[in-house]
Design a protein that fits this description.
2 domains, Rossmann fold, alpha/beta, 5-stranded mixed sheet, about 350 residues, binds nicotinamide-adenine-dinucleotide, single chain, 6-stranded parallel sheet
Length: about 350
């Protein structure tokens, strides 16, 4: 297995393999970059097909956190951990305790938070064994409201730039996915008078948003072709791909889902078609911004945290201006700005 030459390795500072035979823990903790501060990133528990997939996932995700935390202007680097195992059947308090001890052994270089397959309750168990945690019950709690507010701030910036409109009144937004983030986002958008088109695979989620906000229900597969101003993916990754791109009839793509572009070239294609793409990792950073505020002296202050989240608006404008100046797609401009922030020389 080649390591240092692997594309995903990308000069990781440290990668730790942690095992605890008693509890069955098999975990990988990846610390990509600590130039800006301790490496903050979630702990994912997943039944990976093989160990190599787990390693690659940890490396890719931790690298992504360096970029995300830098663009969110956090005094934090990027890291991520993965536990190999099925979260529904293999998770025990003992396993989480062992994970806590593994995190603690890194002395604060890595700060753990929840992710796919782990919950705030799991982080509470981990917290009994290490102080290096974020996203705990007494702090910011569920990050989704902050994530939704960040996406809302990003949509505002994109609409101001692309549509030259300072208000969202009458702006048509197609929202895909009405889960924790999507529903909160719809509330913000409706509050400003936006016209909503919504889809979810669960009819009860759709019915709720239709009733609460007067949204128009759209079949899951039809959401890509809705004639609207903004498409806000809030469900799945890779939704901007060869199949969906020709169907889009919007001026802006701006949503919460991670890894919306199936490949980087789809960012180029969006730009070529004149569709403004708000890089996902920039506008969905509200949750991580919020939980990072638990580390502030004096503890978590919701208002201060949300003021920081609102700055996503200005960050997105900075990225758009850079993209225009350098003639590159917004996803590339975002990466360049992030790199300058964690690799200043
Ligand atoms: N929760 C956060 O703070 C946060 C932070 C950053 C990124 N994200 C990303 O944002 C997205 C949404 O997060 P969430 O916490 O709201 O998740 P969630 O699981 O609560 O909601 C996702 C919703 O999408 C729906 N869905 C699934 N497939 C669909 C499809 N094909 N068409 C339409 N709807 C579909 C699901 O039924 C569900 O209601 C995810 O991609 C997540 O990784 C979330």
């Amino acid at each position: 297995m080649p390591v240092f030459g692997d594309q995903d390795f990308d000069n990781h500072e440290q990668v730790v393999f942690a095992a605890d035979p008693e509890t069955g823990l098999r975990a990988i903790i990846a610390i990509h970059d600590t130039t800006r501060g301790p490496a903050l990133g979630g702990c994912r528990m997943w039944a990976y097909a093989d160990e190599q997939s787990a390693i690659n996932d940890a490396l890719r995700l931790s690298r992504g956190m360096t970029y995300k935390n830098a663009l969110a202007d956090l005094p934090l680097g990027g890291g991520k951990s993965v536990i190999i195992g099925d979260a529904r059947t293999a998770k025990t308090a003992g396993l989480m305790a062992a994970m806590g001890r593994a995190v603690d052994a890194l002395g604060g270089r890595y700060v753990v938070a929840e992710d796919v397959g782990t919950t705030v309750e799991d982080i509470e168990v981990i917290r009994r064994h290490t102080n290096h945690v974020a996203g705990v019950a007494h702090g910011g709690g569920d990050p989704s409201p902050a994530t939704a507010f960040g996406v809302f701030s990003g949509i505002r910036a994109a609409v101001e730039h692309k549509l030259r409109r300072t208000s969202l009144d009458g702006v048509r937004v197609a929202v895909q996915g009405l889960g924790h983030v999507g529903q909160n986002l719809c509330r913000h958008l409706a509050g400003e008078g936006a016209k909503l088109y919504v889809s979810d695979i669960w009819p009860e989620n759709v019915a709720r948003v239709v009733e609460e906000h007067g949204a128009t229900a759209v079949d899951p597969d039809a959401i890509y072709g809705v004639d609207a101003d903004v498409f806000a993916p809030c469900a799945l990754g890779a939704v901007i791909n060869d199949d969906t791109l020709p169907r889009l009839s919007v001026s802006i793509v701006a949503g919460a889902a991670n890894n919306q572009l199936a490949e980087d070239r789809h960012g180029v294609e969006l730009a070529r078609r004149g569709i403004l793409y708000a890089p996902d990792y920039v506008i969905n950073a509200g949750g991580v911004i919020s939980i990072s505020h638990e580390r502030e002296p004096g503890g978590y202050d919701r208002e201060r945290a949300f003021r920081h989240v609102a700055r996503i608006h200005d960050t997105l404008k900075l990225i758009i201006e850079r993209a225009e100046r350098e003639g590159v797609p917004t996803n590339l401009a975002a990466d360049r700005i992030a790199q300058e922030r964690f690799r200043p020389h």
